[in-house]
């Protein structure tokens, strides 16, 4: 497995086209005794929103994990354009309810990669945490225990943790799952704003409205990439019914 970094910055070239932020080729990945991704090749355009779509078990979280660097690919190539290390927002259900952490402490964990566990918090850390919490509308929840928050509040705290990392590449695993339609819309609008502000966003989602508002979709089925392109070309009724057909 090769991981490469190149020197093309993720800013749009003068002709208005956008560069690639991430490219992968023939990527295989999985878990002991269980291959989950097979020969995936695609690119993520900088400063766009990409939706990873597919049925349960199709490999969306595994692909996000590989892009985030928390799961090792077993073969293939993964190339990042120059930029900061990705920020990863895991599925809400993957974060324990019983962790004795306040909302603010949870967001502060987003700064660990920058400052390490032991260095004292700097003014820059505090500013990053404050601004992420304000942007997600969770500043008023700072002292509440994470486990006491509603699903939507907890989701916003986790996204704030991702934002506090101040990366230009934000990877989110099902950020709108389990939320009411209003909360889903708010999070989708926020992600769209982040793209406009210079972030490349990749989200795994079962929310077809969110996927349709993305710039590009990667459609997965059984660990294989079966479609990539603009949502109107990929999320067609035929493709969706074929992929979601009961076995
Ligand atoms: N920790 C794990 N150990 C072993 N196998 C796993 C593990 N996590 C996922 N898998 C398997 O890898 C495959 C892909 O799972 P993955 O979680 O990436 O799918 P997904 O598309 O994100 O699913 P969902 O929509 O249900 O979240 C599935 O067959 C799944 O059973």
Automatic annotation (TrEMBL):
It comes from Streptomyces durocortorensis. Belongs to the ABC transporter superfamily. Residues 1-20 are annotated as: Disordered. GO terms for molecular function: ATP binding. PROSITE patterns: ABC_TRANSPORTER_1, ABC_TRANSPORTER_2. Residues 22-247 form the ABC transporter domain. This is Metal ABC transporter ATP-binding protein. Transmembrane segments: none annotated. The lineage of its organism: Bacteria, Bacillati, Actinomycetota, Actinomycetes, Kitasatosporales.
């Amino acid at each position: 497995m090769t991981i490469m970094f190149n020197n093309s910055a993720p800013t749009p070239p003068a002709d208005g086209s956008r560069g690639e932020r991430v490219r992968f080729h023939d990527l295989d990945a999985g878990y002991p005794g269980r291959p989950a991704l097979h020969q995936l090749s695609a690119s993520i355009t900088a400063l766009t929103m990409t939706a990873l779509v597919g049925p349960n078990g199709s490999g969306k979280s595994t692909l996000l994990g590989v892009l985030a660097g928390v799961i090792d690919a077993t073969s293939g190539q993964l190339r990042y354009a120059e930029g900061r290390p990705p920020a990863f927002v895991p599925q809400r259900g993957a974060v324990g309810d019983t962790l004795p952490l306040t909302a603010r402490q949870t967001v502060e964990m987003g700064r660990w990669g920058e400052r390490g566990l032991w260095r004292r918090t700097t003014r820059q850390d505090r500013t990053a945490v404050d601004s992420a919490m304000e942007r997600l509308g969770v500043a008023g929840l700072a002292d509440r225990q994470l486990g006491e928050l509603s699903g939507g509040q907890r989701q916003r705290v986790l996204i704030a943790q991702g934002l506090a990392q101040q990366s230009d590449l934000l990877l989110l695993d099902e950020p709108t799952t389990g939320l009411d339609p209003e909360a889903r819309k708010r999070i989708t609008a926020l992600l769209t704003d982040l793209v406009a502000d210079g972030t490349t966003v990749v989200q795994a989602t079962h929310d077809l409205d969110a996927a349709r508002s993305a710039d590009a979709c990667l459609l997965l089925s059984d660990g294989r990439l079966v479609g990539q392109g603009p949502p109107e070309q990929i999320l067609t009724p035929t493709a969706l019914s074929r992929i979601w057909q009961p076995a």
